[in-house]
Amino acid sequence: MTTDLTRATAAELADLLGAGSVSSREVTRALLDRTAAVDGAVHSYLHVDEAGALAAADAADRARAAGEPLHALAGVPVAVKDVMATRGLPTTCGSRILQGWVPPYDATLVRRLREAHLPLLGKTNMDEFAMGSSTEHSAYGPSRNPWDLERIPGGSGGGSSSAVASFQAPLAIGTDTGGSIRQPAAVTGTVGAKPTYGGVSRYGLVALASSLDQAGPCSRTVLDSALLHEVIGGHDPLDSTSVDAPVPPVVEAARRADVAGLRIGIVRELTGEGFQPGVQARFDEAVQHLVDAGAEVVEVSCPSFTYALAAYYLILPSEASSNLARFDAMRYGLRVTPEGVAAPSAEQVMAATRDAGFGDEVKRRIILGTYALSSGYYDAYYGSAQKVRRLIADDFDRAFEAADVLVSPTAPTTAFRLGDKLEDPMAMYLNDIATIPANLAGIPGLSVPSGLADEDGLPAGFQVLAPAMADDRLYAVGAALEARLTAAWGGPLLDRAPDLSEVTR
């Protein structure tokens, strides 16, 4: 076990805290100091809550000293994506239109973190309203990839992934609408899990696309993600889409890490052409590791996946157009008065506010979604996209008859350079080609590091998909693969990442 508290995994920190070898205040202080040292270069956070985190750490220490029954992660700090309502802390969604807004309530997920005594380190950077694949669409500037500060850390949750990868937080919460937990994990060499839709409450999560959004854990190990999943998961009567069922046995599965006899389905449509050779090579090697661990490999075809990207980019903008209509300059957030208008109408104030408050990507998607929902086009666009969604779900059902889990590379490439795809939205959207189908079908997915691509020495990701509410299968496969790859690498992949101390002095 490492003696550097910032590099310890969440499970290692839990063991230290449980044994009384270290206090939550010491752990939290070490992580806050690390953030002060490196986040000027990485820009993972939009808001750091030093006082609140230390107060929560002290409360965790008191609870442990009093002998209260605690979750294993009690006292282990966590960072939260800035799309979740946090009482007393700013929630901006990476947008100017919510700059300075402080919610009067906690999202259910945040409340569960607080009740479990996990100190909240702060709110992490993100693409505005979670629209993007690079975190370059944040109104407050991009986050950067700790492996190469001139490259993206993924999106929309690049703040959470970069915080974990740069050892500013052992755990973070992200949201995944089309891959925004899994794709950032892939390009930063971390672990990211999208639970089954409805498996983690969406109450208090600022909505992008209500039928797609799902919050989930980000971490450096599969077990850490499972432990965090256990804390935040479960039924919530405040969320009408919440699944009324127990959290699958994800921690037990991660600890067991057994894939003997498991049928691993390689999705034909999510490999090969269009995938960077180094990414594909690491994927092929990872599959062989699972075979060596006793898994059986089969090939499956999901032909409707060919249309997933097109369907997604009709459904998401349509729902976003509806959800973002609430930002009207009348109830909360930014209000801009149009220049040169003596007595502006509500509509004029609304237009001026949205023009100043929303970024280009948000405007692009609102326009697209409004068009798709307009009279005369609804059936041709949004309605047709929902029919394709049904076909994709049917493809998954057939595939899971032949295989227990499905696998693919998480993203087609490693991290691209900042600015490379800002002028080409379609090129940006293609980064989510392998992750989008899971969101359309509502099934769970997990990304684990598969190694470094030969072309650029940057991390690649391995995606595992499972049937709805079979999230434990993800963790069993992920942990088994992680154990074999870590042994092959001679240690965690993040140990090979550059030392940021040189660029932050």
Automatic annotation (TrEMBL):
Heterotrimer of A, B and C subunits. It comes from Phycicoccus endophyticus. PANTHER family: GLUTAMYL-TRNA(GLN) AMIDOTRANSFERASE SUBUNIT A (PTHR11895:SF151), TRANSAMIDASE (PTHR11895). GO terms for molecular function: ATP binding; glutaminyl-tRNA synthase (glutamine-hydrolyzing) activity; transferase activity. It is an enzyme of class 6 (ligase). Pfam families: Amidase. Its EC number is 6.3.5.7. This is Glutamyl-tRNA(Gln) amidotransferase subunit A. The keyword Nucleotide-binding applies. Allows the formation of correctly charged Gln-tRNA(Gln) through the transamidation of misacylated Glu-tRNA(Gln) in organisms which lack glutaminyl-tRNA synthetase. The reaction takes place in the presence of glutamine and ATP through an activated gamma-phospho-Glu-tRNA(Gln). The keyword Nucleotide-binding applies. The active site is at K81, S156, S180. One of its GO terms (cellular component) is glutamyl-tRNA(Gln) amidotransferase complex. Residues 26-474 form the Amidase domain. It catalyses: L-glutamyl-tRNA(Gln) + L-glutamine + ATP + H2O = L-glutaminyl-tRNA(Gln) + L-glutamate + ADP + phosphate + H(+). One of its GO terms (biological process) is translation.
